């Protein structure tokens, strides 16, 4: 029976080879270069740009072999924690700016305070630099920032006779209703796009959580926050976005690439990914800032972005630092900003973006950019998906006030649970 | 009349049992436009391999497939050998502490594996076994071992010891007696048990996430399936094709062992 | 060989089991137990240097409302599933005995096929079956006249998600129990049934007076195995709902995993696991006792 199983295994292995399996390539043979493992999050940078960077960096640094691994968002917290706790960690890891505080506080990240001047950290974006700084020490190195705008399909706007992007929320609802005709969706907004909700809540004067006398308190049950949710619900209904999923399931740029969706809420860099899927929307994508309640003030947006960290457990600290310096340095930053339509990590580099429609829209919004509550525990709130569940519950007909009360209590508990 | 009702019930049970598996394969072979049709079709009118091509071309599929097979088969084989030895001692010998051992093996099935992730991670780290398929194999071996012992003990108990004794009287050594007389009778039990172990180990994904960190080429198929679902989310054709490919080894093994399994799976537990 | 001669053989035979168990089960269990008495979070995992804090983690759990809600939910989850599994599999087993050979083999193969489907594949299938827009279940319900299921989002509602998970777990568990019970039924001598029928017993009486007592041990085994499996069931729930929506499907193992891996409260997670083992052991103590005696 042992032999039979082995035989079966052999047959299966053979059939695997027969259909063209490539055995994975082993480590490069000669010279035993320092193999640097880099974790980049799925969706941050296009494959071509990473490939280009890899080639250039390897050419400039003899003896360095880059292994850039794209990480899926699902379960990333567990993997980064395990990596930081291991003895042979990846050498450079990209972490979201809402997550970097908790890793920095854990003691598993290399302190780069002495290198800030070398990295030209004097004019780093505060929204990225601050979360990476704990007790006066700089652990996270700002990489890029981005905030959401409305990406629209110019053809569908023209078809519906819309000449000009909306300036207020009311206009926005009006044109989206007009666009939501026939086989087309006015807007593809999934039910769990929580940072879009955060923006609407901030516009109303509410917040996700507030600090009262040293204690955090979930605030989604305030009248302002409920008004924000109400607007989200009305907007979400003007398309076929699934009520029980977020924008990654399915990836919304793939949905948008099909050409029947008039608008999505996304970072401008999504345009590059849309074209990766299907080139037919080339030059057909427009951008405008998320409208606010009144025409004089654009909508408040969530400033997202990433920091780079070097785990203490990395076996190649010096090479890793050189790599971070290259990734965060002027040359690559300019390339990253123009290719991906990101805001570069230093304010003095912002000039490279002028003339780009997407980033112009982003810059308007960035003026009113906000961040999630500034506590290492916020990462846990995101990880438990309570806000997403709250949104799905309301969108599928539950009582908003009762659900908001529940989710706020849950946020209160998580934020005060110590670390 | 009574016979008719009985047969109708049997057919209903048959259909509900098979339907989910059938639906998985059917969806995997349907062209996307049929999958998205308002009225589902229950027969592959226009089968296509497109979804399988998508799944197989997703990064890492073959590597992960091979890793999974390697780890699973190794874990199951080791567990069978180790369990057989223990089951023999439990059914054919008397010794101090035997009943305590029986209870311990039964209780081991209650092990809260999800909560042992961190301790196992620490052990692997301190013994330099992170990023190693051997450690994964070890964990899967341990996850399947208790049930394997419990079932094999049942099978062995069902075989009268007198058979071996008679063979020994005829001059065989104890080992030869066991191999010639007991082993053939035990074969169905071994196969049923190995199928169970295979399915359990084949599925595991929580330990892969913490034990395989830097060396992505050592990940296994369940991890691939979950990240595949992340990327392909509502491409249900591709997702079902991926799920089919994932289920295939277990189902093949089942077909391969089916005859024996039908009777084998159960005889042991009856005596259990 | 049955002579009570003292020998090292039995100990040699169980040595690999004991060694494996010591290194990969008992040692991690002890470590988890120790962690449950410590302040052990992300920092301690990475830096080391955890400090003992006595029973604080247990006090936090037992003093909070959430833990008891999870325990209660786990009890409901286990009871609902195990009752359904045992009742359905008994029915299927009784049916199998009465079927003609061809159909019986077909049903048995179907059962074994469902049993052999890996959990994660099965879970993915059920997500697809119950998908809101294109799922075949909603289509079927609407076709049967339940119009409210048009586009119904099963996974947005706690009770509905719970129900889908129950269907999934029952679908996966009935085959093992049914085939085992069927094998048990075939060992009951036919004469027993005949004499009972001659005495004028009805079908129900025969079942309760003969079948159940004859198979009592087997039922006990199946019930305790299913209790363990269902109470500890994790991948199905985690992949399908991650314990949501609104914690409606957070049972003890899911809770332990969430607390540890998502909130990085490894200390609290270990305490949950320790309490889970205690609860299971108490629930099954009578069965364990019987095993010692046998």
TrEMBL record, chain A:
Taken from the UniProt entry, a GO cellular component term is: ATP-binding cassette (ABC) transporter complex, substrate-binding subunit-containing
What InterPro entries has UniProt attached to this entry? Answer: SBP
Q: Name one Pfam family in it.
A: SBP_bac_1
**Keyword Signal belongs to the record:** yes
Q: Which residues form the signal peptide?
A: 1-21
Keywords, A to Z? Signal, Transport
| UniProt record, GO biological process | maltodextrin transmembrane transport; maltose transport
Q: Which GO molecular function annotation, any one, does this entry have?
A: maltose binding
Task: State the superkingdom.
Answer: Bacteria
Family per similarity comment: Belongs to the bacterial solute-binding protein 1 family.
Q: What is this protein called?
A: Extracellular solute-binding protein
Which species is this UniProt entry from? Nonomuraea longispora
From TrEMBL, chain C:
**Which UniProt key words apply to this protein?**
Cell membrane, Membrane, Transmembrane, Transmembrane helix, Transport
Question: What do the Gene Ontology cellular component annotations say?
Answer: plasma membrane
Q: Name one GO biological process term.
A: transmembrane transport
Task: Please give the Pfam families that the UniProt record associates with this protein.
Answer: BPD_transp_1
The domain of life for this entry's organism is: Bacteria
Which InterPro entries does UniProt cross-reference here?
MetI-like, MetI-like_sf, UgpAE/MalFG_permease
The keyword Transmembrane is assigned to this record = yes
User: Where's it mainly located?
Assistant: membrane
Query: So where does this one cross the membrane?
Result: 7-30, 75-97, 109-130, 162-185, 268-288
What membrane topology was assigned to this protein in its record?
A: Multi-pass membrane protein
Could you tell me which residue ranges the ABC transmembrane type-1 domain spans?
71-289
Q: Where in the cell is it found?
A: Cell membrane
Which family, according to the similarity comment? Belongs to the binding-protein-dependent transport system permease family.
Q: What is this protein called?
A: Sugar ABC transporter permease
Q: Which organism is it from?
A: Nonomuraea longispora
């Amino acid at each position: 029976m042992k032999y039979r199983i082995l035989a079966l295994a052999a047959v299966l292995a053979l059939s695997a080879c027969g259909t063209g399996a490539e055995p994975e390539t082993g480590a490069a043979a000669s010279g035993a270069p320092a193999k640097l493992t880099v974790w980049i999050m799925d969706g941050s940078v296009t494959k071509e740009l990473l490939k280009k960077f890899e080639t250039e960096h390897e050419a400039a640094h003899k003896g360095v072999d880059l292994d850039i691994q794209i990480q899926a968002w699902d379960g990333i917290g567990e993997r980064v924690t395990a990596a930081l706790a291991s003895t042979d960690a990846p050498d450079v890891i990209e972490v979201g700016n809402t997550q970097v505080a908790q890793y920095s506080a854990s003691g598993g990240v290399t302190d780069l305070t002495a290198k800030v001047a070398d990295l030209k950290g004097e004019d780093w974006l505060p929204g990225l630099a601050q979360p990476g700084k704990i007790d006066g020490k700089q652990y996270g190195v700002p990489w890029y920032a981005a905030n959401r705008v409305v990406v629209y399909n110019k053809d569908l706007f023209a078809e519906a006779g819309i000449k000009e992007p909306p300036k207020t929320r009311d206009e926005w609802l009006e044109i989206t209703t007009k666009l939501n005709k026939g086989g087309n969706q006015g807007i593809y907004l999934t039910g769990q796009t929580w940072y879009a909700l955060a923006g609407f809540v901030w516009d109303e004067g509410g917040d996700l959580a507030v600090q009262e006398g040293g204690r955090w308190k979930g605030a989604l049950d305030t009248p302002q926050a409920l008004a924000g949710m109400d607007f989200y619900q009305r907007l979400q209904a003007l398309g076929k976005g699934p009520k029980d999923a977020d924008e990654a399931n399915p990836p919304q740029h793939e949905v948008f690439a099909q050409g029947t969706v008039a608008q999505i809420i996304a970072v401008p860099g999504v345009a590059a990914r849309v074209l990766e899927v299907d080139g037919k929307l080339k030059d057909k994508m427009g951008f405008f800032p998320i409208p606010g309640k009144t025409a004089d003030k654009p909508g408040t947006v969530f400033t997202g972005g990433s920091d780079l960290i070097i785990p203490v457990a990395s076996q190649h600290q010096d090479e890793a630092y050189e790599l971070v310096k290259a990734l965060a340095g002027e040359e690559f930053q300019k390339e990253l900003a123009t290719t991906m339509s990101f805001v570069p990590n230093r304010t003095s580099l912002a000039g490279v973006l002028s003339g780009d429609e997407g980033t112009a829209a982003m810059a308007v919004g960035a003026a009113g950019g906000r961040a999630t509550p500034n506590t290492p525990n916020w990462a846990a709130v995101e990880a438990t998906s309570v806000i997403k569940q709250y949104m799905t519950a309301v969108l599928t007909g539950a009582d908003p006030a009762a659900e908001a009360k529940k989710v706020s209590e849950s946020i209160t508990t998580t934020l005060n649970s110590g670390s | 009349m009574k016979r008719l009702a009985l047969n109708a019930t049997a057919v209903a049970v048959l259909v509900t049992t098979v339907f989910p598996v059938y639906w998985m394969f059917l969806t995997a072979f349907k062209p996307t436009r049929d999958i998205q049709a308002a009225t589902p079709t229950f027969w592959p009118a226009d089968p296509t391999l497109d979804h399988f091509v998508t799944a197989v071309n997703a990064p890492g599929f073959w590597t992960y497939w091979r890793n999974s097979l390697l780890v699973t088969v190794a874990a199951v084989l080791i567990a069978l050998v180790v369990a057989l030895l223990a089951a023999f001692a439990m059914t054919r010998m008397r010794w101090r502490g035997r009943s305590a051992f029986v209870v311990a093996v039964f209780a081991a099935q209650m092990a809260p594996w999800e909560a042992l992730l961190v301790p196992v991670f620490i052990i692997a780290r301190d013994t330099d076994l992170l990023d190693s398929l051997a450690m994964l194999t070890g964990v899967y071996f341990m996850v399947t071992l208790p049930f394997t012992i419990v079932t094999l003990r049942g099978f062995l108990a069902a075989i009268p010891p007198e058979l071996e004794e008679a063979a020994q009287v005829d001059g065989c050594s104890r080992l030869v007696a066991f191999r010639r007389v007991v082993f053939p009778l035990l074969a169905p039990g071994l196969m049923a048990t190995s199928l169970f172990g295979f399915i359990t180990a084949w599925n595991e994904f929580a330990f892969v996430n913490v034990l395989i960190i830097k060396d992505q080429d050592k990940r296994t198929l369940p991890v691939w399936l979950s990240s595949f679902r992340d990327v392909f989310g509502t491409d249900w054709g591709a997702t079902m094709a991926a799920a089919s490919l994932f289920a295939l080894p277990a189902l093949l093994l089942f077909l391969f062992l089916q005859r024996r399994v039908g009777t084998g799976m159960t005889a042991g537990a009856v005596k259990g | 060989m049955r002579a009570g001669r003292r020998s090292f053989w039995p100990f040699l035979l169980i040595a690999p089991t004991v060694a494996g168990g010591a290194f990969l089960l008992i040692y991690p269990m002890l470590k988890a137990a120790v962690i449950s008495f410590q302040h052990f979070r992300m920092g301690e995992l990475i830096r080391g240097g955890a400090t003992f804090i006595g029973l604080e983690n247990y006090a936090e759990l037992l003093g909070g409302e959430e833990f008891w809600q999870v325990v209660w939910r786990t009890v409901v989850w286990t009871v609902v599933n195990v009752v359904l599994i045992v009742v359905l599999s008994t029915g299927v087993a009784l049916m199998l005995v009465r079927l003609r050979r061809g159909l019986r083999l077909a049903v048995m193969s179907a059962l074994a096929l469902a049993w052999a489907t890996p959990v994660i594949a099965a879970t993915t299938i059920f997500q697809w079956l119950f998908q809101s827009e294109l799922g075949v279940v909603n289509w079927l319900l609407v076709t049967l006249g339940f119009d409210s299921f048009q586009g119904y989002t099963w996974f947005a509602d706690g009770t509905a998600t719970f129900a889908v998970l129950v269907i999934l777990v029952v679908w996966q568990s009935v085959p093992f129990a049914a085939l085992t019970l069927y094998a048990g039924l075939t060992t009951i001598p036919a004469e027993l049934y005949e004499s009972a029928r001659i005495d004028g017993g009805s079908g129900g009486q025969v079942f309760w007076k003969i079948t159940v007592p004859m198979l009592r041990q087997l039922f006990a085994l199946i019930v305790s195995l299913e209790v363990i499996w269902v109470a500890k069931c994790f991948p199905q729930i985690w992949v399908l709902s991650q314990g949501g929506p609104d914690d409606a499907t957070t049972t003890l193992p899911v809770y332990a995993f969430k607390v540890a891996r998502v909130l990085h409260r490894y200390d609290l997670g270990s305490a949950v696991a320790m309490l889970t083992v205690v609860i299971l052991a108490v629930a099954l103590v009578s069965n364990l006792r019987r095993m010692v005696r046998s």
